[in-house]
Design brief:
Bound molecules: benzoic acid, fe (iii) ion
Radius of gyration: 22 Å
Number of helices: 6
Strand content: 15-25%
Largest sheet: 5 strands, mixed
CATH topology: Protocatechuate 3,4-Dioxygenase, subunit A
Length: about 280
């Protein structure tokens, strides 16, 4: 029996049937190539069942699967191609929180003070180098042991290493934090266990997350990677792009006198919304 994509329902208003049609055609190709036994196929179904059971409002195992298979990065790349000089997007990942309170510029987002101090300053600008004033910057990062605040609600203060700032009239911002550490993605669920068994790299090089929003501009959701991390070439989510890698500069301890020990200067370049699409959308999304 041959199923064909054309036999599945097509709808202009809903992309899911179209996605399903193409996915089914590929799935049948996989089955013909691998010729799994009934027992093998039951294992596949059990794995997918476990992924569903591992997902709740605190943990999204399906998103983790999409991220670790590189699917999220590919969808992002197809949909947010930008001019070379603009800041590229990466995936948001599972540890983002939108409810972080706004802080004054210069605040310290390390609420427990544990880790090597890092001072971050930067500017948000458009493609012509003009400032984007009053842009919203949400940042989140792991601590010096590689854990996010919402992974350790009993060990870290709420909103530790999270900040929400607004740029000043010159598009500038600055804040204090600590140097983040690389970490392993959660591997206590079905996705991590299977991908480890399959030999996938499950490490994430040290990074900072940023989401930057301003009216009339495309939202930037991105990472900044620590250029000295030895695992840059094996990011579990395929997110490292050369334009997102930076060198953390050491501050002279004698000069800094208790001030932050590392410095990082960042520039984020936003592009105006509603540009001509750079690709033909395949589906009616
Ligand atoms: C993260 O960096 O927060 C992340 C992104 C995707 C999967 C796991 C972790
Ligand atoms: Fe992260």
């Amino acid at each position: 029996m041959t199923f064909s994509a054309q036999r599945l329902p097509q709808s202009k208003d809903d992309s899911l049937p179209q996605i399903l049609a193409v996915a089914v055609a590929h799935l049948h190709g996989v089955i013909r190539e691998l010729r799994p036994t009934q027992a093998d196929w039951r294992k596949v179904i059990e794995f997918l069942t476990d992924v569903g059971h591992a997902s709740d409002e605190r943990r999204q195992e399906w998103v983790l699967l999409s991220d670790l298979l590189g699917a999220s990065a590919l969808v992002e790349e197809i949909n947010s191609r930008r001019p070379k000089t603009a800041t590229p997007n990466t995936v948001r990942g599972p540890f983002f929180r939108a409810d972080v309170p706004q802080l004054a510029l210069g605040s310290n987002i390390s609420l427990d003070g544990i880790g090597e101090r890092l001072e971050i300053s930067g500017r948000v600008q458009d493609l012509d180098g003009d400032p984007v004033a009053n842009a919203e910057i949400i940042t989140w990062q792991a601590n010096a042991q590689g854990f996010y605040e919402n992974q350790q609600p009993d060990l870290q203060p709420e909103f530790n290493l999270r900040g929400f700032f607004r740029t000043d009239a010159d598009g500038r911002f600055h804040y204090q934090t600590i140097r983040p550490c690389g970490y392993g993605v959660p591997d206590d669920g079905p996705v991590g266990k299977l991908l480890r068994q399959a030999g996938y790299p499950l490490r994430r090089p040290a990074h900072l997350h940023f989401m930057i929003k301003a009216p009339g501009f495309e939202t930037i959701t991105t990472h900044i990677y620590d250029g000295s991390d030895p695992h840059l070439a094996e990011d579990a989510i395929f997110g490292v792009k050369p334009e997102l890698v930076r060198t953390f500069e050491r501050q002279d301890e004698r000069q800094s006198k208790g001030a932050p020990a590392w410095r990082l200067e960042l520039t984020f370049v936003m592009v105006r919304a509603n540009r001509e699409p750079r690709h033909e959308p395949r589906f009616h999304l």
